[in-house]
Specification:
By secondary structure, this protein is of the alpha+beta class. Strand 6 and strand 7 form a beta hairpin. 41% of the residues lie in helices and 14% in strands. Among the domains are: 100 residues, Phosphorylase Kinase, domain 1 (2-Layer Sandwich), CATH 3.30.200; 167 residues, Transferase(Phosphotransferase) domain 1 (Transferase(Phosphotransferase), domain 1, Orthogonal Bundle), CATH 1.10.510.
Amino acid sequence: MDHYSAHSSAHAAALETDSEKYLGMAPWPVSNLLKSTKRKAVSDYEAPRKRIKISEEEIHLRYDQIKRPNALKRRLRDESEKALSPEIGNVFSDDKLPRKRTRISEEETLPTKHQIQVKLDRFPKRESKSLFSPRSAWALAKSLFKTKYKQQDQLGEGGCGSVYGGYRRFDKLPVAIKHVPKKNVVWTDADENGRQLSTEVAAMLKLEIERDRSIGRSAPISLLDWYDLKKELILVLERPVPAVDLSKYIEKNKKPLDENQAKIIIKQLVHAAKHLEDNKIFHRDIKPQNILIETGSGMPRLRLIDFGLSCFTDQTSDGCFYGTERFVPAEWLSEGVYNAGPATVWQVGAVLYETLHKKEFNSVKFVKNKRTISKRLSRDCRSFLKRCLTKNSGCRPTLEKLQHHPWICENTGSVR
Protein backbone atom coordinates (compact mmCIF):
# COMPACT_ATOMS: atom_id res chain seq x y z
CA MET A 1 0.00 0.00 0.00
CA ASP A 2 2.88 2.32 0.88
CA HIS A 3 4.51 1.57 -2.46
CA TYR A 4 1.34 2.32 -4.35
CA SER A 5 0.80 5.57 -2.51
CA ALA A 6 4.34 6.72 -3.19
CA HIS A 7 3.94 5.95 -6.92
CA SER A 8 0.67 7.86 -7.09
CA SER A 9 2.21 10.87 -5.38
CA ALA A 10 5.12 10.89 -7.87
CA HIS A 11 2.73 10.62 -10.84
CA ALA A 12 0.62 13.48 -9.56
CA ALA A 13 3.69 15.69 -9.13
CA ALA A 14 4.86 14.92 -12.69
CA LEU A 15 1.41 15.62 -14.13
CA GLU A 16 1.31 18.95 -12.41
CA THR A 17 4.73 19.83 -13.78
CA ASP A 18 3.69 18.90 -17.38
CA SER A 19 0.51 20.92 -17.12
CA GLU A 20 2.44 24.01 -16.15
CA LYS A 21 4.74 23.52 -19.16
CA TYR A 22 1.82 23.03 -21.53
CA LEU A 23 0.08 26.13 -20.34
CA GLY A 24 3.25 28.11 -20.73
CA MET A 25 3.71 27.09 -24.38
CA ALA A 26 2.78 29.52 -27.27
CA PRO A 27 -0.34 28.55 -29.24
CA TRP A 28 0.23 26.70 -32.62
CA PRO A 29 -0.85 28.76 -35.67
CA VAL A 30 -3.94 27.50 -37.42
CA SER A 31 -2.40 28.18 -40.86
CA ASN A 32 0.41 25.80 -40.03
CA LEU A 33 -2.13 23.27 -39.04
CA LEU A 34 -3.85 23.55 -42.44
CA LYS A 35 -0.57 23.37 -44.32
CA SER A 36 0.30 20.21 -42.63
CA THR A 37 -2.85 18.58 -43.89
CA LYS A 38 -1.94 16.10 -46.61
CA ARG A 39 -5.43 15.63 -48.18
CA LYS A 40 -8.22 18.15 -48.65
CA ALA A 41 -11.41 17.28 -46.89
CA VAL A 42 -14.30 16.39 -49.19
CA SER A 43 -17.98 16.01 -48.64
CA ASP A 44 -19.64 12.65 -48.49
CA TYR A 45 -21.30 12.98 -51.94
CA GLU A 46 -18.25 14.26 -53.88
CA ALA A 47 -15.43 11.90 -54.74
CA PRO A 48 -11.88 13.26 -54.50
CA ARG A 49 -10.56 14.58 -57.85
CA LYS A 50 -7.59 13.00 -59.45
CA ARG A 51 -4.70 15.38 -59.81
CA ILE A 52 -2.93 15.46 -63.14
CA LYS A 53 0.09 17.38 -64.21
CA ILE A 54 -0.60 20.02 -66.99
CA SER A 55 2.09 21.34 -69.20
CA GLU A 56 2.59 25.08 -69.81
CA GLU A 57 1.45 24.75 -73.44
CA GLU A 58 -1.83 23.15 -72.40
CA ILE A 59 -2.41 25.95 -69.89
CA HIS A 60 -2.13 28.55 -72.67
CA LEU A 61 -4.40 26.45 -74.88
CA ARG A 62 -7.14 26.28 -72.27
CA TYR A 63 -6.82 29.98 -71.56
CA ASP A 64 -7.28 30.76 -75.24
CA GLN A 65 -10.25 28.43 -75.42
CA ILE A 66 -12.02 30.30 -72.61
CA LYS A 67 -10.82 33.88 -73.00
CA ARG A 68 -9.91 34.18 -76.69
CA PRO A 69 -11.89 31.68 -78.80
CA ASN A 70 -11.38 33.58 -82.09
CA ALA A 71 -7.64 33.73 -81.59
CA LEU A 72 -7.66 30.00 -80.91
CA LYS A 73 -9.53 29.31 -84.18
CA ARG A 74 -7.03 31.34 -86.16
CA ARG A 75 -4.16 29.56 -84.49
CA LEU A 76 -5.60 26.13 -85.23
CA ARG A 77 -6.26 27.15 -88.84
CA ASP A 78 -2.70 28.35 -89.26
CA GLU A 79 -1.42 25.06 -87.90
CA SER A 80 -3.66 23.10 -90.30
CA GLU A 81 -2.41 25.18 -93.23
CA LYS A 82 1.17 24.43 -92.33
CA ALA A 83 0.36 20.74 -92.31
CA LEU A 84 -0.93 20.94 -95.91
CA SER A 85 1.18 21.38 -99.00
CA PRO A 86 2.36 25.00 -99.42
CA GLU A 87 1.41 24.89 -103.11
CA ILE A 88 -2.27 24.96 -102.24
CA GLY A 89 -1.93 28.37 -100.67
CA ASN A 90 -0.29 29.76 -103.80
CA VAL A 91 -3.40 29.09 -105.92
CA PHE A 92 -5.26 32.00 -104.33
CA SER A 93 -4.36 35.62 -104.92
CA ASP A 94 -4.85 36.75 -101.31
CA ASP A 95 -3.71 35.37 -97.98
CA LYS A 96 -7.17 34.21 -96.88
CA LEU A 97 -7.77 30.55 -97.66
CA PRO A 98 -11.06 28.67 -97.61
CA ARG A 99 -11.87 27.41 -94.16
CA LYS A 100 -12.95 24.02 -95.40
CA ARG A 101 -9.94 22.29 -96.94
CA THR A 102 -9.30 18.88 -98.37
CA ARG A 103 -6.02 17.16 -99.03
CA ILE A 104 -5.14 16.64 -102.67
CA SER A 105 -3.60 13.40 -103.74
CA GLU A 106 -0.47 13.28 -105.86
CA GLU A 107 -2.47 12.14 -108.89
CA GLU A 108 -4.80 15.18 -108.81
CA THR A 109 -3.76 18.52 -110.28
CA LEU A 110 -4.23 21.88 -108.60
CA PRO A 111 -6.49 24.51 -110.28
CA THR A 112 -4.78 27.44 -111.94
CA LYS A 113 -5.65 31.10 -111.33
CA HIS A 114 -7.33 31.29 -114.72
CA GLN A 115 -9.57 28.30 -113.95
CA ILE A 116 -10.63 29.85 -110.66
CA GLN A 117 -11.41 33.18 -112.34
CA VAL A 118 -13.54 31.42 -114.97
CA LYS A 119 -15.60 29.79 -112.21
CA LEU A 120 -16.03 33.09 -110.42
CA ASP A 121 -17.23 34.76 -113.61
CA ARG A 122 -20.11 32.29 -113.84
CA PHE A 123 -21.78 33.86 -110.80
CA PRO A 124 -23.98 36.87 -111.72
CA LYS A 125 -22.74 40.17 -110.44
CA ARG A 126 -25.05 42.14 -108.19
CA GLU A 127 -26.46 45.31 -109.66
CA SER A 128 -25.10 48.43 -108.07
CA LYS A 129 -27.41 50.09 -105.58
CA SER A 130 -25.74 53.46 -105.76
CA LEU A 131 -27.73 56.66 -106.14
CA PHE A 132 -26.96 56.82 -109.87
CA SER A 133 -27.91 53.24 -110.80
CA PRO A 134 -30.88 52.71 -113.18
CA ARG A 135 -32.89 51.00 -110.45
CA SER A 136 -32.47 53.97 -108.11
CA ALA A 137 -33.38 56.41 -110.91
CA TRP A 138 -36.57 54.47 -111.71
CA ALA A 139 -37.57 54.34 -108.05
CA LEU A 140 -36.91 58.05 -107.63
CA ALA A 141 -38.93 58.94 -110.73
CA LYS A 142 -41.90 56.86 -109.55
CA SER A 143 -41.74 58.43 -106.09
CA LEU A 144 -41.66 61.95 -107.55
CA PHE A 145 -44.65 61.19 -109.77
CA LYS A 146 -46.76 59.89 -106.86
CA THR A 147 -45.73 62.83 -104.70
CA LYS A 148 -46.70 65.44 -107.29
CA TYR A 149 -49.78 63.89 -108.95
CA LYS A 150 -52.86 61.90 -107.96
CA GLN A 151 -54.04 59.31 -110.52
CA GLN A 152 -57.75 58.50 -110.76
CA ASP A 153 -60.06 56.57 -113.13
CA GLN A 154 -59.13 55.44 -116.63
CA LEU A 155 -60.27 57.73 -119.43
CA GLY A 156 -59.36 55.60 -122.44
CA GLU A 157 -57.03 53.07 -123.99
CA GLY A 158 -55.37 52.91 -127.38
CA GLY A 159 -52.76 51.00 -129.31
CA CYS A 160 -49.87 52.89 -127.73
CA GLY A 161 -51.01 53.03 -124.11
CA SER A 162 -53.73 53.93 -121.63
CA VAL A 163 -54.82 57.32 -120.28
CA TYR A 164 -56.06 58.10 -116.76
CA GLY A 165 -57.58 61.17 -115.22
CA GLY A 166 -55.99 62.88 -112.24
CA TYR A 167 -54.85 66.17 -110.79
CA ARG A 168 -51.75 67.98 -109.61
CA ARG A 169 -51.70 67.86 -105.82
CA PHE A 170 -50.57 71.36 -104.89
CA ASP A 171 -53.10 73.31 -107.01
CA LYS A 172 -55.67 70.63 -108.01
CA LEU A 173 -55.01 71.26 -111.74
CA PRO A 174 -56.78 68.54 -113.80
CA VAL A 175 -54.30 66.41 -115.76
CA ALA A 176 -54.32 63.41 -118.08
CA ILE A 177 -51.80 60.71 -117.15
CA LYS A 178 -50.66 58.57 -120.06
CA HIS A 179 -48.88 55.24 -119.48
CA VAL A 180 -46.88 54.02 -122.49
CA PRO A 181 -45.16 50.58 -122.30
CA LYS A 182 -41.51 50.72 -123.30
CA LYS A 183 -42.14 48.20 -126.09
CA ASN A 184 -44.41 50.77 -127.82
CA VAL A 185 -42.02 53.70 -127.49
CA VAL A 186 -40.24 55.11 -130.55
CA TRP A 187 -36.98 56.74 -129.44
CA THR A 188 -35.14 59.70 -130.89
CA ASP A 189 -31.48 60.60 -130.63
CA ALA A 190 -30.18 61.82 -127.27
CA ASP A 191 -30.86 65.44 -126.36
CA GLU A 192 -28.26 68.07 -125.40
CA ASN A 193 -28.11 66.63 -121.86
CA GLY A 194 -27.42 63.11 -123.11
CA ARG A 195 -30.93 61.79 -122.30
CA GLN A 196 -32.74 59.64 -124.82
CA LEU A 197 -36.25 60.97 -125.49
CA SER A 198 -39.30 59.34 -126.98
CA THR A 199 -40.53 60.90 -130.22
CA GLU A 200 -43.76 61.94 -128.52
CA VAL A 201 -41.92 63.77 -125.72
CA ALA A 202 -39.43 65.35 -128.12
CA ALA A 203 -42.21 66.64 -130.39
CA MET A 204 -44.24 68.13 -127.54
CA LEU A 205 -41.18 69.74 -125.96
CA LYS A 206 -40.32 71.34 -129.28
CA LEU A 207 -43.79 72.88 -129.43
CA GLU A 208 -43.38 74.44 -125.98
CA ILE A 209 -40.48 76.83 -125.71
CA GLU A 210 -42.09 78.45 -122.70
CA ARG A 211 -44.16 75.62 -121.31
CA ASP A 212 -46.07 77.45 -118.55
CA ARG A 213 -47.16 80.23 -120.89
CA SER A 214 -48.41 77.79 -123.52
CA ILE A 215 -50.80 75.91 -121.23
CA GLY A 216 -54.34 76.47 -122.47
CA ARG A 217 -53.25 78.83 -125.26
CA SER A 218 -52.07 76.48 -128.03
CA ALA A 219 -54.11 74.00 -130.02
CA PRO A 220 -51.72 71.09 -129.32
CA ILE A 221 -52.18 69.85 -125.77
CA SER A 222 -49.35 70.79 -123.35
CA LEU A 223 -46.91 68.34 -121.80
CA LEU A 224 -46.48 69.12 -118.08
CA ASP A 225 -44.13 66.34 -116.94
CA TRP A 226 -42.75 63.00 -118.03
CA TYR A 227 -41.16 60.14 -116.08
CA ASP A 228 -38.95 57.35 -117.40
CA LEU A 229 -39.60 54.15 -115.41
CA LYS A 230 -38.28 50.63 -115.84
CA LYS A 231 -41.11 49.24 -118.00
CA GLU A 232 -43.04 52.32 -119.09
CA LEU A 233 -43.07 56.03 -119.73
CA ILE A 234 -45.50 58.23 -117.82
CA LEU A 235 -46.59 61.44 -119.54
CA VAL A 236 -48.52 64.05 -117.56
CA LEU A 237 -50.59 66.17 -119.94
CA GLU A 238 -52.88 69.14 -119.69
CA ARG A 239 -56.56 68.10 -119.45
CA PRO A 240 -59.13 70.72 -120.47
CA VAL A 241 -62.32 70.56 -118.42
CA PRO A 242 -65.05 70.36 -119.61
CA ALA A 243 -64.14 68.79 -122.94
CA VAL A 244 -65.04 65.81 -125.14
CA ASP A 245 -63.46 64.37 -128.26
CA LEU A 246 -64.94 65.33 -131.61
CA SER A 247 -66.60 61.95 -132.24
CA LYS A 248 -68.56 62.22 -128.95
CA TYR A 249 -69.28 65.87 -129.68
CA ILE A 250 -70.96 64.82 -132.94
CA GLU A 251 -72.86 62.00 -131.21
CA LYS A 252 -74.08 64.41 -128.55
CA ASN A 253 -75.43 66.64 -131.35
CA LYS A 254 -77.46 63.57 -132.51
CA LYS A 255 -76.93 64.53 -136.14
CA PRO A 256 -74.10 65.81 -138.37
CA LEU A 257 -72.92 69.32 -137.60
CA ASP A 258 -74.07 72.18 -139.76
CA GLU A 259 -71.51 73.93 -141.96
CA ASN A 260 -70.92 76.86 -139.62
CA GLN A 261 -70.19 74.57 -136.66
CA ALA A 262 -67.89 72.42 -138.78
CA LYS A 263 -66.14 75.47 -140.21
CA ILE A 264 -65.20 76.77 -136.71
CA ILE A 265 -63.60 73.42 -135.87
CA ILE A 266 -61.86 72.83 -139.22
CA LYS A 267 -60.46 76.34 -139.32
CA GLN A 268 -58.75 75.73 -135.99
CA LEU A 269 -57.58 72.29 -137.16
CA VAL A 270 -55.92 73.72 -140.27
CA HIS A 271 -54.10 76.35 -138.20
CA ALA A 272 -52.95 73.69 -135.69
CA ALA A 273 -51.69 71.42 -138.49
CA LYS A 274 -49.84 74.36 -140.09
CA HIS A 275 -48.23 75.12 -136.71
CA LEU A 276 -46.95 71.52 -136.55
CA GLU A 277 -45.68 71.73 -140.13
CA ASP A 278 -43.76 74.93 -139.35
CA ASN A 279 -42.03 73.06 -136.50
CA LYS A 280 -41.32 70.08 -138.80
CA ILE A 281 -43.65 67.78 -136.84
CA PHE A 282 -45.90 65.25 -138.58
CA HIS A 283 -48.76 64.09 -136.33
CA ARG A 284 -49.69 61.13 -138.62
CA ASP A 285 -52.92 60.27 -136.77
CA ILE A 286 -55.31 63.22 -137.06
CA LYS A 287 -58.85 61.92 -136.55
CA PRO A 288 -61.99 62.84 -134.54
CA GLN A 289 -60.89 60.71 -131.56
CA ASN A 290 -57.63 62.72 -131.30
CA ILE A 291 -59.37 66.10 -131.32
CA LEU A 292 -60.75 67.52 -128.07
CA ILE A 293 -63.50 70.14 -128.12
CA GLU A 294 -63.67 72.41 -125.10
CA THR A 295 -67.31 73.04 -124.26
CA GLY A 296 -66.94 75.50 -121.39
CA SER A 297 -67.83 78.53 -123.55
CA GLY A 298 -70.27 79.32 -126.30
CA MET A 299 -67.63 78.90 -129.01
CA PRO A 300 -66.12 75.37 -129.34
CA ARG A 301 -62.34 75.36 -128.96
CA LEU A 302 -60.17 72.67 -130.61
CA ARG A 303 -57.26 70.93 -128.86
CA LEU A 304 -55.06 68.37 -130.62
CA ILE A 305 -53.97 65.34 -128.57
CA ASP A 306 -52.05 62.03 -128.82
CA PHE A 307 -48.64 62.57 -130.40
CA GLY A 308 -47.70 58.92 -129.82
CA LEU A 309 -47.27 58.20 -133.55
CA SER A 310 -45.80 61.56 -134.47
CA CYS A 311 -42.40 62.03 -136.09
CA PHE A 312 -40.20 64.79 -137.44
CA THR A 313 -40.47 65.58 -141.13
CA ASP A 314 -36.68 65.60 -141.56
CA GLN A 315 -36.49 61.95 -140.50
CA THR A 316 -36.14 59.22 -143.13
CA SER A 317 -39.29 57.17 -143.68
CA ASP A 318 -39.04 53.44 -142.96
CA GLY A 319 -41.67 52.54 -145.56
CA CYS A 320 -44.48 51.82 -143.08
CA PHE A 321 -47.76 53.59 -142.46
CA TYR A 322 -48.41 54.80 -138.92
CA GLY A 323 -51.93 55.86 -138.02
CA THR A 324 -55.54 54.70 -138.29
CA GLU A 325 -56.23 52.44 -141.25
CA ARG A 326 -59.49 54.05 -142.38
CA PHE A 327 -57.77 57.45 -142.60
CA VAL A 328 -54.82 56.25 -144.68
CA PRO A 329 -54.09 58.62 -147.62
CA ALA A 330 -54.98 57.49 -151.12
CA GLU A 331 -51.35 57.50 -152.34
CA TRP A 332 -50.46 54.86 -149.77
CA LEU A 333 -53.20 52.60 -151.13
CA SER A 334 -52.03 52.99 -154.73
CA GLU A 335 -48.25 53.46 -154.42
CA GLY A 336 -47.30 52.46 -150.87
CA VAL A 337 -45.73 55.86 -150.09
CA TYR A 338 -46.91 59.10 -148.47
CA ASN A 339 -45.50 62.47 -147.40
CA ALA A 340 -46.27 64.61 -144.38
CA GLY A 341 -47.94 67.60 -146.08
CA PRO A 342 -50.35 65.86 -148.49
CA ALA A 343 -51.16 63.12 -145.93
CA THR A 344 -52.10 65.75 -143.32
CA VAL A 345 -54.36 67.56 -145.83
CA TRP A 346 -56.08 64.22 -146.60
CA GLN A 347 -56.75 63.63 -142.91
CA VAL A 348 -58.15 67.16 -142.48
CA GLY A 349 -60.60 66.37 -145.29
CA ALA A 350 -61.49 63.05 -143.64
CA VAL A 351 -62.31 64.82 -140.34
CA LEU A 352 -64.49 67.36 -142.14
CA TYR A 353 -66.30 64.54 -143.98
CA GLU A 354 -67.25 62.86 -140.68
CA THR A 355 -68.56 66.09 -139.17
CA LEU A 356 -70.91 66.69 -142.11
CA HIS A 357 -72.05 63.13 -142.96
CA LYS A 358 -73.91 60.40 -141.12
CA LYS A 359 -71.59 57.65 -142.33
CA GLU A 360 -68.03 57.48 -141.03
CA PHE A 361 -65.18 58.08 -143.42
CA ASN A 362 -63.21 55.20 -144.92
CA SER A 363 -60.34 55.79 -147.36
CA VAL A 364 -60.72 52.50 -149.21
CA LYS A 365 -64.45 53.02 -149.75
CA PHE A 366 -63.95 56.65 -150.78
CA VAL A 367 -61.31 55.72 -153.36
CA LYS A 368 -63.71 53.12 -154.74
CA ASN A 369 -66.50 55.74 -154.86
CA LYS A 370 -68.51 53.97 -152.18
CA ARG A 371 -68.38 57.16 -150.11
CA THR A 372 -69.47 60.38 -151.83
CA ILE A 373 -69.68 64.03 -150.82
CA SER A 374 -73.21 65.15 -149.97
CA LYS A 375 -74.83 67.46 -152.49
CA ARG A 376 -76.73 69.35 -149.79
CA LEU A 377 -73.51 71.16 -148.83
CA SER A 378 -72.63 74.61 -150.12
CA ARG A 379 -70.47 74.99 -153.20
CA ASP A 380 -67.47 76.34 -151.27
CA CYS A 381 -67.71 73.56 -148.71
CA ARG A 382 -67.89 70.91 -151.42
CA SER A 383 -64.90 72.52 -153.13
CA PHE A 384 -62.89 72.45 -149.92
CA LEU A 385 -63.69 68.76 -149.35
CA LYS A 386 -62.91 67.74 -152.94
CA ARG A 387 -59.53 69.48 -152.88
CA CYS A 388 -58.55 67.88 -149.58
CA LEU A 389 -59.61 64.41 -150.75
CA THR A 390 -58.00 64.57 -154.21
CA LYS A 391 -56.67 61.10 -154.98
CA ASN A 392 -53.55 62.45 -156.66
CA SER A 393 -51.36 63.79 -153.84
CA GLY A 394 -49.51 66.11 -156.24
CA CYS A 395 -52.74 67.95 -157.00
CA ARG A 396 -53.70 68.30 -153.34
CA PRO A 397 -53.37 71.85 -151.91
CA THR A 398 -50.93 72.69 -149.13
CA LEU A 399 -52.03 73.63 -145.63
CA GLU A 400 -51.12 77.23 -146.32
CA LYS A 401 -53.41 77.31 -149.36
CA LEU A 402 -56.20 75.76 -147.30
CA GLN A 403 -55.91 78.65 -144.85
CA HIS A 404 -56.82 81.00 -147.69
CA HIS A 405 -59.64 78.92 -149.16
CA PRO A 406 -62.89 80.91 -149.59
CA TRP A 407 -64.87 78.55 -147.37
CA ILE A 408 -62.36 78.95 -144.50
CA CYS A 409 -62.07 82.69 -144.96
CA GLU A 410 -65.82 83.32 -144.63
CA ASN A 411 -66.65 85.08 -141.38
CA THR A 412 -68.05 82.70 -138.78
CA GLY A 413 -67.09 84.54 -135.59
CA SER A 414 -63.85 84.57 -133.67
CA VAL A 415 -62.54 81.74 -131.56
CA ARG A 416 -62.10 82.79 -127.95
